[in-house]
Amino acid sequence: MESNNLTVVIVTYRSENKIFACLNSIPGDIDIIVVENSNNQEFKKSIESKYSNVKCILAEENLGYARGNNIGLNQVKTKYALVLNPDATLEKNCINSFLNTAKKFQDFWLIGPANDQSNFSDNSDEFEVHNLKGFAIFFNIQKFNNNFFDENFFLYFEEIDLCKMVKMKKGKIILSKNIKINHEGSGSVDKNNKNEFEKNRNWHWMWSTYYYHKKYKGFIVALIIIMPKFISSIFKTLFYQFTFNIRKRDIYFSRMSGILNSVLGKKSWYRPSLD
């Protein structure tokens, strides 16, 4: 199996401080599609001039994880695609491990790395699972017929929903202990924008929680699941308002707003105000 069977898709948003480490970890003979969720012409020029194997698509606005990745995945011409977060870096032989796993399980739909091996008692190097982490997902493109992520999600639950769809179609999701990827995660957030990201995180986590459960369990069950969180967010918003803790008030107000907007059937519209 040659690396020309693979395209890497990376969705970015103001990721200038971390995307280069990610790109440097990917072998230079692999095509990369970067979808930048803005109209940052300088960003596009910078990475395309530095990396001959990178094509940068400017989305013009912040479309989120699902829509951004769908743009990239629909541009893929190879048999496989690796969706990768910009704060992830590949360890040596990572691509070969993905391709070897794909060769071993030729009817797979998705493959992911088993980063925290302490959670797995199975002695096998590869095994079937129901879910993968969203920072690195390897796609068997032909299985999906251009139907990838649900674009109603802006943030959170996208990969859970994707895996749910695959399992409903009796598809195989493989986790491999041989695939090594470093993922920075929440530690990569700019400290200057920490409060805005926290409000954003809480708003979208609540919106997506309700939307996901409604999608698969119906309005009533989803409402029962979300109602305790909604009531708690109301009381905590009021409590922190009266105790003058503005930061926590704003966080719980964001939770309340995310739930309310989702229950009312409104789109996932909230975006952080960043410096």
Could you walk me through the main structural features you see in this protein, from its secondary elements to its overall organization?
Helix 6 (194-217) packs antiparallel against helix 7, helix 6 packs parallel to helix 8 (246-263) and helix 7 packs antiparallel against helix 8 (246-263). 39% of the residues are buried. Helix 2 links the parallel strand 2 and strand 3 (54-58). This protein has helices at residues 19-24, 41-50, 64-73, 94-104, 158-168, 194-217, 219-242, 246-263; strands spanning 6-12, 31-36, 54-58, 80-84, 88-90, 108-113, 126-128, 136-140, 172-176, 181-183. The strands form two sheets. An eight-stranded mixed sheet has the order 3-2-1-4-8-6-9-7, with helices on both faces. A two-stranded antiparallel ribbon has the order 5-10. The chain is built from eight helices and ten strands. It has two domains: 3-186, Spore Coat Polysaccharide Biosynthesis Protein SpsA, Chain A (Alpha-Beta Complex), CATH 3.90.550.10; 190-263. It is globular.
Question: Helices and strands in order, then pairings?
Answer:
Blueprint lengths: L5 E7 L6 H6 L6 E6 L4 H10 L3 E5 L5 H10 L6 E5 L3 E3 L3 H11 L3 E6 L12 E3 L7 E5 L17 H11 L3 E5 L4 E3 L10 H24 L1 H24 L3 H18 L12
Parallel strand pairs: 1-2, 1-4, 2-3, 6-9
Antiparallel strand pairs: 4-8, 5-10, 6-8, 7-9
Helix pairs in contact: 6-7, 6-8, 7-8
Order of helices and strands: EHEHEHEEHEEEHEEHHH
Biggest beta-sheet profile: 8 strands, mixed
Strand order across the biggest sheet?
3-2-1-4-8-6-9-7
CA radius of gyration is: 20 Å
Question: How many helix segments?
Answer: 8
CATH homology-level superfamily of the largest domain: Spore Coat Polysaccharide Biosynthesis Protein SpsA, Chain A
